[in-house]
């Protein structure tokens, strides 16, 4: 089963119209591997701007959304609003949403269900913190997080699973290609046992955590690494090198 390589850029709370406009121009004119699906996660306030400027072959994602369509939820955005901007993806469960903003597994599951019901693709993030890895409970943590997402998914073709060890996000520490492959392989085995063999074979499991132009090629060569969710480097020209990691 060949899985189309997927590279997501998570711009987080960065950029303005000038800098993002320049980045979009770089991506629109770069020679990108046609066998890679590219999706850029824009700050909510720029979703409309980014979608209008970005080449149609490149996808755009919101970085979060709420679990209902509308209502008295000050500061939130809904999948319906995201779609109204022509945007087809959302990132959910990022470690910063979990650990900075206190989002629970349960809430992330509810958001996932609602986003999928409303036709958005979901980049669902999971990953352990440093103390959890050192305590030897990486599998326990990521399986529990994955279960709550899986319980809320009917159509896996719209889901990309992003494994991001929290200790490697923005720290400059990257999980070694072997560490990444080990967790990805175990996640695929979990999917086979708990969802289905067909889904396990087809779902894309991407890696995030200080991915750079320098680390991407060896990571991409791992059997169960189907792409990347890129933070800081997605705001730089080297994002093109990461998209082209298999070339």
TrEMBL record:
Catalyses which reaction(s): dihydroxyacetone phosphate = methylglyoxal + phosphate; D-glyceraldehyde 3-phosphate = dihydroxyacetone phosphate
Any single Gene Ontology cellular-component annotation: cytosol
GO molecular function per UniProt: methylglyoxal synthase activity; triose-phosphate isomerase activity
Signal peptide interval: none
Pfam families: TIM
Domain of life from the UniProt record: Eukaryota
PROSITE patterns assigned to the protein according to its UniProt record, in alphabetical order: TIM_1, TIM_2
SUPFAM superfamilies: Triosephosphate isomerase (TIM) (SSF51351)
Pathway this chain belongs to: Carbohydrate degradation; glycolysis; D-glyceraldehyde 3-phosphate from glycerone phosphate: step 1/1; Carbohydrate biosynthesis; gluconeogenesis
Function description: It is also responsible for the non-negligible production of methylglyoxal a reactive cytotoxic side-product that modifies and can alter proteins, DNA and lipids.
PANTHER family named among the record's database cross-references: TRIOSEPHOSPHATE ISOMERASE (PTHR21139), TRIOSEPHOSPHATE ISOMERASE B (PTHR21139:SF19)
Family: Belongs to the triosephosphate isomerase family.
Subunit structure: Homodimer.
Name of the featured protein: Triosephosphate isomerase
Organism per entry: Merluccius polli
